[in-house]
Amino acid sequence: MNIPIYAQYVLYALCLATFIWAFIKFSLLRSMVVALANIIFGAVLILNLEPSSPGLTVTLMIGFVLIVLGLWGFVLWIKQNLNQFNDQTGQNETLESWWQTVRAFDMILIIGLFLRFFVIQPFYIEGPSMNTTFQDKEIILVDKVSYRFREPVRGEVVIFVAPVNNKDDYIKRVIGLPGDTVVVERGKVYINSKEIVEPYLSTSGKTPENAARVETKVGIDEYFVLGDNRPQSSDSREWGLVPQRNLIGRAIVAIWPFDRAELITTPSINTK
Fold first, then answer.
1. Region label for 240, one of left (φ > 0), alpha (ψ between -120 and 50) or beta (otherwise)
2. Which of 31, 79, 146, 172 is catalytic?
3. 121-263, which class in CATH?
4. Domains of the chain: which residue ranges?
5. What is the pLDDT of residue 54?
6. 247 Cβ contact list (under 8 Å, min separation 6)
7. Catalytic one of 129, 144, 233, 236
8. pTM
9. Does residue 193 carry a catalytic annotation?
10. 264 touches 255 (CB < 8 A)
């Protein structure tokens, strides 16, 4: 028998409503679902880690805590079911105590994940391409909201998905904006035929004078980016422009090591 599509939707809605009602009404069902969810999510976190994963230690700790909380709740749930026909007030209190603990931890984790994916995230710098502005193994925070409301500004330090390898995230400085013509030659950078002054570059960080000349016309929704340590940076001179869709956010504050902690400002890039 074929069930009309609208009737299927009604059936799905009723099933979902019944589950939500049971989840709220019956603490045992709620405890079982939350305990299993913690175990599964903790295991997924740990199993998907790689040695190069950022925040490896913190993620391992979170995954371990989730699994422990889940197993603890699942054991309490089994004990409660085995003794459900007896007067086990103490056991009910133990299960409720577990629920309060795991609810608080999970809520903090959910809020943290929301902030991490949509608002702000840490970024671990690898390599010397941004010396001396940023050092290898330095940790910064990335604002992921600003570029939803405005375009990048020349001079901002941005983090983006690498055009050459979508598994990597790069950190560079925005030099060329849409419509610009960028020329790099004899150790200098020109925007629309005018040489720019780059106060963030050290003497050793400038492009070598004998490097090959690069000329690029920046298209719509594209950006020309360079590292602050030009001799050791893989950037737009090598692999081209960064599409706007690849942008993750802008660097806003350095947090580690503590002796280098500071707000990250955008310098004025003037022409000579």
1. left
2. 172
3. mainly beta
4. 5-118, 121-263
5. 61
6. 147, 152, 158, 159, 160, 223
7. 129
8. 0.71
9. no
10. no
